Structures are given as structure tokens and as C-alpha cells.
Amino acid sequence: MPDILKTTLEVLGRLVPARFRADIPVVPVVRLSGVIGMSTPLRPGLMLSSVARALERAFATRHARAVALVINSPGGSPTQSHLIMRRIRQLAEEKKIPVLAFIEDVGASGGYMLACAADEIICDQYSIVGSIGVVGGSFGFPKLMEKLGIERRLYTSGDNKVMLDPFQPEKPEDVKRIKAIQKDIHGHFIALVKERRGIKLKGTDKVLFSGEFWTAQTAVEFGLADSIGDIRSALRERYGDKVRTPLVSGDRSLFGRKVAGVSLADALGNRGGLADDLVSALEARALWSQYGL
Fold it and tell me: What backbone torsions phi and psi does residue 189 show, to the nearest 5 degrees?
């Protein structure tokens, strides 16, 4: 190629916007932040319906070398955690694009399940990682009901339809039943972690899957994470100083607000109102506080 033609092409190439240039590496970034699954119209949680579009856009990015997940979640719904995790894996396998997870404050319980979607997990040195277990809780008000003179009237068909009703005394058989369900979910969680982390795991099942959580260095030693670092440094080390890291979000409405998994019709039809939002906020606060946050 004549020098003048080569020079001309180089000059023209520099005029092309960076997002269209194949010579500049691109790693789209998707944030997965917040409590998973707990949702009211005013406090949308992290759900597949609210992140699916962002994930699809990230994996469809032209010239993407990898997709980066920035995770900051104390967990929540095991179902929504698994649905998001499986969708990430489906897209990664379809597009043949590696996935890198960067844990910020917390990647615990369902938040750690999200991180397991990645081929590599990188944490800040102060990150909290782990809590591979299942938890459930409720309140009981039977004595308060009796003291206030309130009579509970409940009509059901099915012996176990009101299992763990907070307005009735706790029954040992109900507790046994819910613990069996939790054990089953925990077993699936353990199998998923073993499938994704494989021979990287170090330590006994009794320790790793006890529900305990650790700071980043210990998590790396146990093989639950791969290294300590930050997204900017890690991506520059892998793909060079010119790497582009566009933040990919979901669709937006006419007025620029994010379109979450709850529609306007859902919001207008909500009957719980402030009470539901208050309970949701308390539950979310309780999840974060487990990790000192």
C-alpha cells in the first residue's frame, strides 16, 4: 500500500467515532445493585424483568471483548437471583463473550450467585463475599391479638394453606416443613457454586457453605473470588489504556426515567401503598445490615 494511501486511511480512521472503531477494545458495563426480588411500585428491586434489556444490549455491543458486571447486592430472592444468573450465562454462551464480575461493597447470598455468572470474580479489598445459605423470617402476633381482643377469622381449603400464619401460634410441623424447603434450595445453591467455581474452591463444604461471609482476601483464599482489584485497573491491564467501558442501562421512558419491571398500571393498582413500601424498606435495610452496612 502506498504510504500516502496508508496515511490517508489512518487519518480517516481517527475521524471515526470511537464506538465504531474495531481497533479500540470495548467492555460494556452493567450494574447489578440492590436487594434482589423485593419490590413495590416505589421501591423496585433487582429482577430479571428490570435488567434483561440492559444485559441483552451489553452482549450485543459491537466489538465487545468482554462484559463487566458491577455487583453490589446483599441478596434476596433465590429465584430472581438464579433467573438473572442463568440469563447472563445464556447470553455469554450465545455470543461467545467472557464475563467479568466486580464486587463492590457486598456480593453475598443471591448477590454472590450473580457473581457466579462470571468467568472471573474480582473484589475490592473491603468487599464482603459469601453467605452461601438460605434465610427466611417472619413475625408472630398471637399474644398481641389476644391482648387487644382481636379475633382472627380465616377460612381455607387445604390443611397447610395457612402454614406459618403470623397471627397464629407457631407449629413445629410447619417449621419442619419450611426448613426442608430451605435445605433443598441450599443444596441447589451449593451445586451451582461448585459447578461455576470448580477446582478453584479451597476448604471444606462445612466452612464454605455454612452461610458465613468474609472479606475479599479470605474469599480469594477460599477460591470464592479470583483476585482483588478495581474495574478501571483490571480492564486497562487486560485490554489497554484505550479500552472503552460504556455503562449500559435498560430502556428509558419518554421522560428519561428508567423503565423497571413494574408498570404504571401496577403502581396505580397497588393496594399496599405506604405500608408495603415501609415493610419493603425495613426488609431491605435488614439485609444490608447483616453485613455491617
Answer: -60, -45
Q: How do strand 128-130 and strand 213-215 relate by DSSP bridges?
A: antiparallel
Pick the more confident residue, 279 or 45: 45
The answer to whether the CB of 59 falls within 8 A of the CB of 26 is no
Average confidence (pLDDT) over 280-284? 65
Assess contact for 62 and 27: CB atoms under 8 A. no
Phi, psi of 81 (to 5 degrees): -60, -45
- Please name the helix (run of DSSP H) or strand (run of DSSP E) that holds residue 178, with its range, or none: helix 172-197
Q: Is 183 exposed, middle or buried (0-12, 13-18, 19+ CB in 10 A)?
A: exposed
> In the CATH scheme, what architecture does the domain 24-131+212-289 have?
Alpha-Beta Complex (3.90)
Residue 163 has pLDDT above 80, yes or no: no
On the 0-12 / 13-18 / 19+ scale of CB atoms within 10 A, 54 is buried
Planar angle of CA 6, 8, 14, nearest 5 degrees: 105
Q: How far is CA 9 from CA 2, 4, 20, 266, in A?
A: 11, 9, 15, 54
Q: Give the predicted TM-score (pTM) of the model.
A: 0.77
pLDDT value, residue 179: 78
Selected residue with higher pLDDT from 117 and 181 = 117
Ranges of beta strands (E only) in 171-291 are 213-215, 227-228
pLDDT higher than 70, residue 56: yes
Q: How far apart are CA 39 and CA 272, in angstroms?
A: 12
User: Domain segments of the chain: what residues?
Assistant: 24-131+212-289, 135-196
C-beta contacts of 163-171 below 8 A and 24+ residues apart? 164/138, 166/138, 166/139, 166/140, 166/141, 167/141, 167/142, 168/142, 169/140, 169/142, 170/140
Of 103, 76, 77, 100, give the one whose Cα is nearest residue 88. Answer: 100
